[in-house]
Amino acid sequence: MKIIAIAKQIDGFAENKDVARTIRIEDILPYLEKGESVTLDFKGVSGATQSFIHALISEAIRIYGDEVYDKLVFKNCSPEIQEIVNIVADYMEES
């Protein structure tokens, strides 16, 4: 299992889509391709934009569909970040 500490890659607030893209390409997708679980740990993250979360997880949802939720774990999310994750997940499931 891969644990990704989001706070180590950002400066308190997750808004940089390029950082999210790098995490997705270098950390999330390679582990999912190997069938391994990935934990996205938001400890120390004060908030996030919808575009950051979209850049972070949308491709994994597109590739793996609902099965991705068995391998992609969100940890230490504030209620606001969890709501954004849900919005992005719902949007991707509808498209």
Per-chain topology:
Elements: E1 2-5, E2 13-14, H1 17-33, E3 38-41, E4 47-48, H2 50-64, E5 72-75, H3 79-94
Parallel strand pairs: 1-3, 2-4, 3-5
Helix pairs in contact: 1-2, 2-3
What does this structure look like?
The protein has 95 residues and is of the alpha/beta class. It has one domain (2-94). The protein is built from three helices and five strands, in the order ββαββαβα. It has a three-stranded parallel beta sheet, with helices on one face. Helix 1 (17-33) packs parallel to helix 2 and helix 2 (50-64) packs across helix 3 (79-94). It starts with a strand and ends with a helix. The model has no long low-confidence stretch (mean pLDDT 96).
